[in-house]
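Exercise 7b. C-alpha cells:
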C-alpha cells in the first residue's frame, strides 16, 4: 500500500483501534504473578516481552495464557524444568517498549521473546518506521542479554490477534499486518542471534486452545535454540550457575521489605509444607545479606539474624541449582559444622532472576539423598516467589 492510500485510510482504522482499546477495559487479562513454571529441574528461562499474545487477553491467569502453555510445552519437549515470565502490556509498542527493555536486567534469561501487537496493523503504521523501531528494540535486547542468549520476534496473524475481542480486523488491516510481518522477518534476518516466528493456530478456536496452539509453535521454535545454547561452554545456563553481584542482591532484598519485618502467615504456610513434605525437623526461608542471614521464616523459631559463618543458604545462592548436603559432618563441601547434618536448599529469585535467598529443609540426622524430590523443593521456592509478587502488587 502506498503512503497516500495509507494516510487516507488511517483515520477510519484509528477510530476502529480506539474502539478496540475501549473493549479491553472489559476483557479479562491475568492479574496473578506474571510467570509460569514447567515441571522438572535445571530450568530454562524464557522472558516474553511486549503486547499482543503476551498480554493474555481472555484469561484470568498466566497459567492459562502464553507463559503457562509455553512452560509446560517446553518442559515436555526438553525433559527439563522451565521458567517462562511475561512483561506484557497493551501499551508496549515502539519506543515505549524499548524504554521497558532498557530498564530491565536481561542477563538471567536464555531466550527473550518480543511479541508484537495489533496496534501497528490496525492503524496502518508506516512499515519503515516499524522496521526502525524493531531494529532499535532488537539491538537494545542484544546489548543487555548474555552474548549467547537468543532473541525471538513473534508476530500473530491479525485475525487471531483480535479474536479475543470478538471483532473483525478488516481486509485492509489484515493485508497491512502481513506487510509488517514481512518487515519483522527482514529485520530479524539482519541479526545473527535473532529469529522470527509466526504464532498461528485458529481464530475460530476458544481462547485457551488459541494460547495452546501459539505455545506449541513457540516451544517448537525455542527448544532447538536452547539445545544449541547448552552445547556451548559460554551458555547462559552455565553463566547462571555462577555467583551474582552482592550489590545487586542487596538492592533486590531491600525492595522486598522483608528484613526486620514480622513473619507472614502465607510464607509460614509454604515453609511448613516444605518441612512436612521432606519430614525434617526444620525448614526456613532465609535472605542472605552481606554479613548475615535473615531468617524470614523458621519453623524452629531460631534467631532471626545469624552470621554467614553458620549459613548453608549462603552457599545455596551461589548457584541456580539446589544445594544438597547428606551429612555436613562428613563432607568436603564448604559448609558450617553445627547441629545441622542434612540440608537441602533451593534459591528464591526476584522476577529478573536475582537470587536473594533460599527455602531450605534441614535435620540433625544425616540422610540418604538418593531420589530426593528436588522438584518439590523448587516448587516451594516458586510458591514463595509468587507470594512476594502478591505482596509487591
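Sequence design result:
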Amino acid at each position: 500500500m502506498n503512503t497516500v492510500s495509507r494516510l487516507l485510510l488511517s483515520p477510519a482504522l484509528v477510530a476502529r483501534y480506539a474502539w478496540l482499546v475501549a473493549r479491553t477495559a472489559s476483557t479479562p487479562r491475568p492479574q496473578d504473578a506474571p510467570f509460569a513454571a514447567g515441571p522438572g529441574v535445571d530450568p530454562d528461562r524464557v522472558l516474553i516481552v511486549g503486547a499482543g499474545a503476551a498480554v493474555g487477553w481472555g484469561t484470568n491467569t498466566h497459567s492459562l495464557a502464553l507463559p503457562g502453555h509455553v512452560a509446560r510445552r517446553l518442559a515436555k519437549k526438553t525433559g527439563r524444568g522451565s521458567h517462562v515470565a511475561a512483561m506484557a502490556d497493551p501499551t508496549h509498542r515502539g519506543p515505549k517498549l524499548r524504554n521497558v527493555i532498557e530498564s530491565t536486567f536481561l542477563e538471567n534469561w536464555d531466550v527473550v521473546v518480543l511479541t508484537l501487537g495489533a496496534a501497528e496493523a490496525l492503524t496502518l503504521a508506516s512499515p519503515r518506521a516499524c522496521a526502525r523501531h524493531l531494529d532499535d528494540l532488537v539491538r537494545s535486547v542484544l546489548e543487555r542479554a548474555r552474548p549467547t542468549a537468543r532473541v525471538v520476534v513473534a508476530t500473530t496473524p491479525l485475525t487471531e490477534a483480535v479474536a479475543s475481542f470478538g471483532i473483525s480486523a478488516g481486509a485492509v488491516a489484515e493485508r497491512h499486518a502481513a506487510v509488517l510481518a514481512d518487515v519483522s522477518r527482514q529485520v530479524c534476518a539482519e541479526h545473527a542471534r535473532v529469529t522470527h516466528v509466526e504464532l498461528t493456530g485458529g481464530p475460530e478456536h476458544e481462547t485457551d486452545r488459541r494460547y495452546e496452539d501459539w505455545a506449541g509453535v513457540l516451544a517448537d521454535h525455542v527448544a532447538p535454540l536452547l539445545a544449541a545454547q547448552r552445547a556451548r561452554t559460554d551458555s547462559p545456563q552455565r553463566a547462571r550457575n555462577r555467583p551474582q553481584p552482592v550489590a545487586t542482591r542487596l538492592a533486590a532484598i531491600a525492595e522486598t521489605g522483608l528484613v526486620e519485618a514480622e513473619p507472614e502467615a502465607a510464607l509460614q504456610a509454604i515453609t511448613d509444607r516444605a518441612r512436612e513434605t521432606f519430614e525434617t525437623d526444620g525448614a526456613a526461608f532465609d535472605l542472605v545479606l552481606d554479613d548475615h542471614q535473615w531468617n524470614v521464616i523458621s519453623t524452629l523459631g531460631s534467631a532471626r539474624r545469624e552470621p554467614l559463618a553458620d549459613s548453608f543458604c549462603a552457599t545455596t545462592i551461589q548457584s541456580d541449582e539446589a544445594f544438597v548436603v547428606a551429612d555436613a559432618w562428613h563432607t568436603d563441601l564448604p559448609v558450617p559444622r553445627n547441629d545441622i547434618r542434612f540440608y537441602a536448599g533451593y534459591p528464591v529469585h526476584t522476577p529478573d532472576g536475582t537470587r536473594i535467598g533460599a527455602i531450605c529443609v534441614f535435620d540433625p540426622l544425616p540422610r540418604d539423598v538418593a531420589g530426593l524430590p528436588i522438584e518439590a523443593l523448587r516448587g516451594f521456592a516458586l510458591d514463595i516467589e509468587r507470594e512476594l509478587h502478591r505482596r509487591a502488587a
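Instructor comment: Residues 33 and 390 are 7 Å apart (CA to CA). Residues 3-240 form a domain with the Rossmann fold fold (CATH 3.40.50.1110).
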